[in-house]
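Feature request disguised as a bug: please show the residue count (391) next to Aminotransferase DegT in the output. Example input:
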Amino acid sequence: MTESCNQSAPELEWLPLLVPDMPSPHELLPWLERMHSARHYSNFGPLVRELESVFAQQFGMADEQLTTVANATQGLELVLQALDLAPSSRVLLPALTFVATATAVLRAGHQPVLADVDPQTWMLTPEIARAACEAMRIDAVLSVAAFGMPHDMQAWQQFERDTGLPVVIDAAAAYGSQWLKEAEGTLVFSLHTTKSLPAGEGGLVVSTRPGLAAKVRQLSNFGINLNPAVGMPVGALASLGSNAKMSEYHAAIGLRSLQKWDLRAQQRRALQSELMLDLHQASGHTLTWQAQGPGGPLMAPTLLCVQLPDTEARAALEQLCKQARIMTRRWYQPLLQHMEMLEQRCLLLDTPNARALGQTLLGLPFFLGMTPLHKHRVCGVLAAMADQRQS
Ligand SMILES: Cc1ncc(COP(=O)(O)O)c(C=O)c1O
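Example output, currently without the count:
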């Protein structure tokens, strides 16, 4: 046997699902130098303050109406704590979301009530929440900007006014897409590496509710009072808080990422449109995508989640992707009610749309820097899936 016969074809590299788009160490240097010369590394230092003041300008809000936090999970927990709901309150949230939405409710001492989502936008809407309130007692709503799709905050403000229930939006993936647009509301964003404004880890709480963001800030700093204007000494323990402050290191990354955000968002939108078109064609026009809701467009998509015609098609696509060494993920699945840790701890409403989505959604590779070959490989498996279905 000759040597060349022994050589097998080099194995194709796995095509990743996501590739973080983080600033390089070189890009971060100016901010790190500033941090180091100020000798201020955490505890609401100059970089965190600067980041917060850019956010305040973007939202057209006063500085005290927002605060950074260590991550969105802590942001959600502390917002729920700051709302001062009675213990074991029922908090309505969608069955289709990331686990942190539910664990934040439980860790804040409340009970999640799992609701259905709209079949087109894949989100819990004010209409669904109204129906839930007719079915059982609900004490607060924690809706989710699913995969970054923004909510119509005027509609949620109207819901709050009609029902008197506080509404919080888990806008973890929606930085740059979810705005208040003159409405009242409370939003919690994630600045995780995989999100549209990556800071490594980080979160942002924005709220028009009087005193809420300031309370979250205090809770993120152990609950220690830092405000000389309230009738309590600075340094006194005002509430039972946690440590959920954003560090100056993370703020440095966030500030650099902000400088590139517009360009990156544009590139992400372009990549998403291109992939949606090409994959839809390759699949024989059998794919469904998340629809834009009344809240407006998704400005900086961070992942690509597709709905297959049925559960068999999804299984076939997963198998084909595995064979072609393409990573996939069932984003937001299994549904919360199917997780052992959660099923006994949540109340469940009827969720037919979420169940259907839970059987048909699949995440495909999506990252800036995808090459024509990467795209070709993904189109290839969708074409193979279409062929399999026809035969
Ligand atoms: C809907 C949702 N909520 C909360 C989180 C948690 O965000 P963080 O990682 O900043 O805690 C995520 C993270 O992906 C998410 O998708």
